């Protein structure tokens, strides 16, 4: 595990008798995730490195948006946090990740995930100039290291700079809504990982699923919408979002050395530009 001295000191203060049960860190980014045990109770500690920008976001999400889930044990409760130290501790949710199991292909999983996402999105809404900022981010990705073909880069720049930038309704969004961040326990789905939570259009939380599970199994999308409600994706804004997400996925994955995600991003680009 990789914790700095301040983080170690805080964990010793908050959970003085805790033992590390398992290191759950993903490894692609500088976030350490530990399962801890103290006096028979389990906890999850998340710590960011010097470059981390997600722990503060996750703390804010716990403090602001997770009540509809934590009230029913569908998300972990925040126990301790220190934004400056980039450290938080939550209670432990029983279960295992949906990704890579039979539950990833079960429509009931997606119906529950749709219901949970609707609860998050329904909490508040504001109108803001979202798309202009997202277009700038997409163009910025194209200036960084990636393996998108030069002619495709030129086409993307021309496309993005031609887009309108309408104001958009923003809701509390998870930011990485997919089976990798869902737990299943006794048939019940719950949610983890809020490091990308922010106010965004509701349709942005459909992006990961549309590029992965919905793409190969339409019944999962139908089940998801049966839990979520009316589909928030309109053709024009959804197309623009798909382009931006494909760019971000491809460039980010290349920079962190995640070859499978880079290939997924390149496929996403091909598919959206051909649509």
TrEMBL record:
What SUPFAM superfamilies does the record tag this protein with? Protein kinase-like (PK-like)
Q: Which residues form the Protein kinase domain?
A: 18-275
Write down the InterPro entries for this protein, in alphabetical order. Answer: Aminoglycoside_PTrfase, Kinase-like_dom_sf, Prot_kinase_dom
Q: Per UniProt, what is one Pfam family of this protein? A: APH
| Record-given protein name | Protein kinase domain-containing protein
